[in-house]
Amino acid sequence: MKQLTKFPDTLKKVSAALITIFAATNSLAQEGKFLEPAVNKATEINQSAVKSQEKINKITDQIGDKLQQFKAINKETTGLDVYNGQLAKQIDNQMQEMADLNAAIDDVSVIERQITPLMMRMITGLEQFVSLDVPFLPKERAKRVEDLKNMMDRADIAPSEKFRRVMEAYQVEMDYGRTLEAYSGLHTIDGQERDVDFLRVGRTALIYQTRDASLQGSWNKKAGEWQALPSSYRTQVTKGLRMAKKQLAPDLLMLPVAMTD
Q1: Cβ(251)–Cβ(257) under 8 Å?
Q2: Distance between CA 210 and CA 189 in Å, rounded?
Q3: Tens-digit pLDDT profile for the chain (261 aa)?
Q4: Signal sequence: where (predicted)?
Q5: How many CA atoms lie within 13 A of 260 on its CB side?
Q6: How far apart are CA 7 and CA 37, in angstroms?
Q7: Tag placement on the chain: N or C end, fewer CB within 10 Å?
């Protein structure tokens, strides 16, 4: 009986506990309904924060790229400033050169008027020199002077080219004074025209020898005429001719030299 008496009390306690649990559960459910909007709002805020952070990261990356571009452009601009400064100096120099060139062009006509009479005097002087010089290669040298005269009348040759040719003719005449030369030609001996070999030793001696080496003679500058040489010079003249023709090594020659006052 005592145990049966205790059972209702136990049942009451269990029932009370279940009621308490149910009440607590119901209370939690009610609180959950009230907290759900807050939780949802917090979730939205977190999602928005994530999106904002992504935007910030993207903007940061863009700023970094723009900064690198700015640095590169700034460096390129600095290089262009230096390059432009150098170009400005070159342009200034070119402008000065153009000014100098224009001034020189303006002076060309003046120079041409001055240099043409000079060349004419030089050609006349060269002609006189050839006529008074030792009479070697007379036709060749006379033709050179005549060609210069004809050249001066031509309008298709620039003054600079004319001057070059005049100076070239003077250079040829200068070279004659320090060279040894042999050439063939015709020479009148005792009223008879003979084939001879001429030997020119600078402007010091001009000698001829017949092909059979039987006769030889030299130009006497003082007398202004040809004079026969004794047969004792035959060997030396022959030797000199061979040396001039590169058939014999250079050696000492014993040749007559006319003395001039």
Answers
A1: no
A2: 10
A3: 444 444 456 555 656 655 665 565 565 555 555 556 666 777 777 787 788 788 888 888 888 888 888 888 888 888 888 888 888 888 988 888 888 877 776 776 677 778 889 999 999 999 999 999 999 999 999 999 999 999 999 989 988 899 999 999 999 999 999 999 999 999 999 889 999 999 999 999 999 999 999 999 999 988 889 999 999 999 999 999 999 999 999 889 888 876 555
A4: 1-29
A5: 11
A6: 46
A7: C
Amino acid at 48: S
Amino acid type, 203:
R
